[in-house]
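Lab notebook, bench 4. Still working through the backlog of constructs that have no structural model yet. Next entry is a single chain of 417 residues. Request: give me the structure tokens for it.
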Amino acid sequence: MNKWKPNRTEFYESAVSMGFYGREDSGLTGKKDNVRKFWEDVFMKLVTRPFIENRPYDDKKLRILDLGSGSGEGFELLTHIPPSNPSKGITKDFVLKNSDIELYRGIDISPAMISQGKANYSDYGNVSFEYGNLEDGLPREVTKDKPYDLYFSTYGSLSHLHPDSMERLMEQIFKHSNNGSVVLFDTHGKYSPAWPKYWGEEKILLPYTMAYLVPGEKRQQEDIEWFDLCYWDPEDLKKLLNKAAQQAGVNINILYMLDRSIFISRHMDTGLLSTKPMQLRYQVSRLLDHGYRGEVAHLKVDLEHLDAYKGINPKVWNRLTDYSHKWNKIIYLLEALMNSEDKKVKDFIENTNIELMGDDLKFITWLYRNADRFPVVDFWASLIGPQVAVILRNIEMSYSEGVGCGHGLICALEVIK
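Model written out:
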């Protein structure tokens, strides 16, 4: 069988030329929308923080290898993680400063990404970017270099790899790493509600598109650029990692697998891989923006169009229905508050026996009813909206075991030698 090589990078070259990989601000749409900044990046920071904050030697500078680094967003993310103890944040903004890093080394297949990364961090002597096709494994310059403390990859970069290449890459990483090195990455989850037609698919590689970067009114079906990715089931990923560790002669401790961006996947909004677009991401971006009011009527999750797929993976279906029930409970409470339906509000709070959710409902109710205590221009946009979005995000993060139903499937493991 001919070896599959993801040599096509023109979709990334175009994205760079359009300015999506510079250091632009967030907003309602685009690559760095509010959901990316205040939901997805926060998710990544929270799951990464323990490995940085609890490293055994505070005076030891970290060595970081970013696999599929793009233009260096991983560096920005890692150096903007606040301390877990709020009192420490008074004197220390972030747990990892640039001066704490011996080397951040970014590897990417796209020349445009590498050039953009070098431009973004031209003043940083400990940051470097270089070409590497991870389908061929770690670049020789990396394997000859010292081990890294953190092997890092975000937002689906490793999903570009064929599973055989992924296995070889992980074997190389495990051999190259130190005892105690952490490997933290995410791939695309197979069972995202954004692409239900892939749930029962047996093909290894399936189509994907970055057409979400283009506003819907400008998106033309015939102009969409498609390329193949691997969508991962957690059990298949665990098998691959354990096999790679065995071949490398090391032990690994898989610390967690988590589902990221379940209902706020970019392709929930586009509907390009489903039968029904649901603009949940855009609406949550409105919640997170202090200049806009969230449109409550459009925030409800309806999974009816997925009924034909629910028998494929009962574990996934149970997760999706549980999350949708909790999500909608928050939205229904908001509607009751806005319509001054006090009896409904009382029933929601008193009849909710879901762990921790009762406190969330009480807090939103208190916040809403004490608007006059907060001297802001737009109480909804400044306080209610962002708080609702945070609760929806925290519900997603409360699931401690990933089942592959998120846009991203995050995995963290420790190498033991």
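Notes after review: The CA atoms of residues 47 and 412 lie 9 Å apart. The first strand starts at residue 62 and ends at 67. Flag for follow-up if needed.
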